[in-house]
Structures are given as structure tokens and as C-alpha cells.
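Collaborator request, handled under Task 6.
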Amino acid sequence: MTATVTAPPRRRGFSKKAVLPWLFLAPGLLLALVFKFLPMGKGIWLSFFKVRPFLGDKWVGLDNYTRVLTDHRFQDAIGHTLVLGIGQSLGAIVVGFALALLLEGQSRSLKFVRTAVFLPVVTATAVVGEMWRLMYYPTSDGLINHALGFLGFGPVPFLDNPDTALWATMAMGVWIWAPYNMVILLAGLAGVDRSLYEAAAMDGVSLWQRLRYITLPAIRPALGIVLVLAAIRGLRVFTEVYVLTGGGPAGSTDVWMTRAYTLGFTRNDIGGASAASAVLLGVTLLLTVTVNYFRKRGDVR
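C-alpha cells returned to the collaborator:
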């Protein structure tokens, strides 16, 4: 006779191990649902209406999208967003990479310096914008113009000149986000095999060749993360522009988000502002998917 072995009965329902993580996530998910996803859905819904408080909303279909996308001021704002986003992102990546190379190590003094360098990231953007606005003060009393005075240059109206306002805003954005990129790149540099540097030094490899053929390939995953975050952040820039210039002078720093804010809260065009925000959401999703695709394609290679 052969003994038959019966498998233990499967437990029906969810086990405690499967439910427990969701219990911890539930408060955050609930807050995100109430304060993020439901308002997002409501905004997309309102983008198809002409919002008329106390009179009832009127369905207009895609008219809000057509009107917003054909508005020359909105088109200018898109151009400013691209210039500011690309310049700010590339500058922050380059400066962050340089800071990561300079501050890499285990010394206690380096840990203190890294903490000090990271302070712009944890400081409220509105506070940083107000500080830079004072530094850009257009007379010799401003910090930057006072320093330029020692070099023989007159006071420069950084924020009052349409030709310089966008670049001045970009410089502040680089200063804010370079330390954030530095931390991610430092994590990537920690995984580089030190024996490769020693072998390269023995072979007389130059510093540039070491960066190109050892460091950059090793931190490619970290660079991919930085690029994705920078792409999203570049399109959604708002607070630094709003605090520093408010979109001026003469609309020279008006970006996607400040234009949507003006439509919604200054001109009371809720439908147009919702349409502009919905288009921004779609472009952000498309850009994120595209950057992720090329990042994963590069990792495969």
C-alpha cells in the first residue's frame, strides 16, 4: 500500500502580512485621494466647461483647450518654461555632479559641509526666493550689485530687465536644486569600485578619462533618476518664478504654471486654467515615460 500525501488546505482571504503594509499606507493614500487625485479629476472635468459661479457651468467641449493653446501669451509662457526648465535642469545636474565629486568621502568635516550645502533644498522655496530677490536688489545696496561695484560694473537691474530676468531666475533654480542632485549622485558614487581608479592612476589615465570611462558609466542609474526628476520639475516650475518676479517684467518670465495661475485667480477663467493644467499633466506624463524609456534603453546597452 502506498500512502497518499495530502497538501494542507490553502488559507482563504488575506493574510496579516498582506494586509499590514496597506494599513500603514492607508492614511497617506487617503490624504492623496482627497487632496490630490480628486481635485485633479475635478480640474480635468472643469476644463470642458465655462465655469460660471452661481449661474451654472456651461459645457464648451474642447474650446478651452483651443483658446489656451492658441493664446500668444500662453505660447510665450511655454517657450519660457522650456528655456528655464532645460537651463535650470542642466545647470543643476552639472553643479550637483561637481559638488558630489568635491564632497565625496567619509570625513566628518565633509559630512558637515554636505549638510550645509543641502540647506537650500530643505528651506522653503518662498523664503529662498525672497532672499534672492534682496540679493538682486537693483542698486548698489544689493549684495550682488555691491560685489559687481568692486569690479567696476554699475548696478544691474537683474529682475527689472526683460533680457536678464529669466536668466536671473534660472541661476536661483540651479542654486536650489544642485544640492538635491548632489545627494543622489553621491549615492551613485559610493558604488564605484575604487580599484578601477587605482588601476587607472597606475596606467597614467587623465582625470577627464577617468570621469568619462569609469565614473559616468558607473553612476548612469543615478543620472537617470536625476534626469527624470529634473524633467518633471522643470515643467512644473512655479514658486521661484512667482516669488521672484511674478511673471514679469512684461511677461518675460511668465511660465506655464504662472500663466495658469493668472487665468484662474486673476482673470477668473477657471475653465481655461483647468485646461492649461490638464495639458501640463499630459505633457509631464509623456515626458516622464519618454525619459524613462531612453534611460532603461541605455541601461540595457
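The cover message to the collaborator said: "The chain has a mean pLDDT of 85. The chain has 14 helices and two strands. Please let us know whether this matches your experimental observations."
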